[in-house]
Amino acid sequence: MSIFFGQINIFSEFSLGFSISPRLLGPTLGFLLGSFCLTTYVYPHEDPGFSEGDPRWIGAWWLGYPIIGSLILVFAGPLACFPQRLPKQGTDAHINQVNCLEK
């Protein structure tokens, strides 16, 4: 709680809650993905012949890695289209960009 004490004067309660909410969403979604993966047998296309309550059950713990990896690749494509740096105002790059947009 002491980490946020200095920010209380800067942020309102709404903006503080708004910035912390996504931080709680990530671990929650990770926990739900993990529980889904562990309900699937370690070899997804095989029928083990016993249920999840059996001590011999091994969940597909590895299934989260390809799911998260594919999501990273999906979001990396659009992010790679952004420029490395945005032109600052008052520089030649900004003036050239403004002139190109006006034409």
Give an overview in words.
It contains 4 helices and no strands. With 103 residues, the protein is an all-alpha fold. It is elongated and about 70 Å long. The model has no long low-confidence stretch (mean pLDDT 81).
Question: What is the structure about, briefly put?
Answer:
With 103 residues, the protein is mostly helical.
Secondary structure elements and pairings:
Blueprint lengths: L1 H4 L7 H26 L25 H17 L11 H11 L1
Question: Which features does this protein show?
Answer:
about 100 residues, mainly alpha, 4 helices, about 55% helix, elongated
**Contiguous runs where pLDDT drops below 50 for at least 5 residues:** none
Taken as a percent bin, the fraction of beta residues is: under 5%
Mean pLDDT: 81
User: Helix and strand succession?
Assistant: HHHH
- Into which percent range does the helicity of residues fall? 55-70%
N-to-C span = 53 Å
Largest sheet: none
Number of domains: 1
